[in-house]
Write a structure and sequence with these properties.
Layout: H1 4-23, E1 34-42, H2 47-50, H3 56-63, E2 65-72, H4 79-88, H5 92-95, H6 113-120, E3 126-130, E4 151-154, H7 157-160, H8 162-179, E5 184-189, H9 191-199, H10 204-225, E6 233-240, H11 256-259, E7 260-266, E8 273-274, H12 283-291
Parallel strand pairs: 1-5, 1-6, 2-8, 3-4, 3-5
Antiparallel strand pairs: 2-7, 6-7
Helix pairs in contact: 1-3, 8-10, 9-10
Length: about 300
């Protein structure tokens, strides 16, 4: 987040005080409308680098919701374990994934959040798109997200290019938001991670890739806000990453630079300000389920908790 985040947050607080004085505190009334959720996963983003680049769209989401730049991911800090935790709500000791080969996965016991939604609320429309194959296909022993989802778009970033793959993914999501009625969505953006690997650094190219990802976020938010039924909907947008990285672009270890991630929960039902509690990657799917009104069964043995909801 840029330095404008804290200033904008202060403005929102002051506006909230004024609204309370003139409207009798009506801003505390629970939002109404159909509950919907968009999960955006941006691969391999260090929060300290994120704070140094221009990200007006992520800043806007953070200003309107809950933000943490000291959230934690698991170990090892690789995409396989990270996205498994992001999508299942449990740590690697439970979902079993400790490499990008997805060996010993236990998705039968700990399914992804969209598969849970389909099993518990099949009336809800689930939609997923990703350009890293193991997330959505059997490549390397995937997929993390099962074929139970209503719509799954599969792209290959290695084949079409990561920048191009992310662009296509966002285009598909924008079309779905304009032409159909999704209730729970996941959009994966892989270009920042792959760019850092390619250039073995967290320099200009990596930072430009993060700024491009922010533009994609802006397009997704714009597509939501352009929906003709937007005023009758309560969208929660959750944005996070799977891991950080070292200065040479690598990751997989247990350093603070690799394990520190960011977390955003934004929308009418989100609380505004810092998270205020210890936040981690496994909180993402639990928060999504809670927003959709799906009670968390203790028998699921999830590790995550609800972070950023309260209105």
């Amino acid at each position: 987040m840029s330095a404008g985040h804290s200033r904008a947050a202060l403005v929102l607080v002051l506006l909230g005080v004024a609204a309370t004085a003139t409207c009798g505190g009506s801003e505390h009334e629970p939002p109404t409308g159909a509950k919907k959720v968009l999960l955006i996963g941006i691969d391999g983003v260090r929060p300290d680098v994120l704070a140094e680049v221009e990200t007006p769209n992520l800043d806007r989401l953070a200003d309107r919701g809950t933000f943490a730049d000291d959230a934690r991911t698991g170990f090892p800090t690789m995409s396989g374990p990270g996205w498994s935790s992001f999508l299942t709500g449990v740590w690697p000791d439970k979902h079993g994934v400790t490499t990008n080969e997805f060996e010993n996965k236990h998705y039968d016991a700990f399914p992804d959040v969209f598969t849970r939604i389909e099993s518990l609320r099949p009336d809800l429309n689930t939609w997923v798109a990703a350009d890293w194959l193991p997330l959505v296909t059997s490549d390397h022993n995937g997929p993390v997200i099962s074929d139970a989802v209503d719509t799954k778009h599969v792209l290959d970033g290695y084949e079409v290019g990561w920048s191009e793959g992310d662009e296509l993914t966002v285009e598909l999501a924008a079309e779905a938001l304009a032409e159909s009625d999704p209730d729970a969505m996941f959009v994966y953006l892989g270009n920042p991670d792959e760019t850092s690997h390619q250039h073995t650094s967290i320099g200009l190219e990596y930072r430009s890739a993060i700024e491009l990802a922010d533009e994609h976020v802006g397009r997704l938010v714009g597509a939501i806000e352009a929906r003709p039924t937007y005023d009758q909907e309560d969208w929660l947008i959750l944005v996070s990453t799977d891991h950080g990285r070292r200065a040479n672009g690598g990751h997989g270890g247990d350093t603070p630079e690799e394990r520190t991630i960011f977390y955003i929960a934004s929308g009418p039902s989100a609380t505004v300000g810092r998270a205020g509690v210890e936040t981690s990657i496994v909180d993402v799917p639990v928060t999504a389920l809670a927003h959709l009104g799906i009670p968390i069964d203790p028998a699921w043995n999830l590790d995550g908790k609800v972070v950023g909801l309260g209105r």
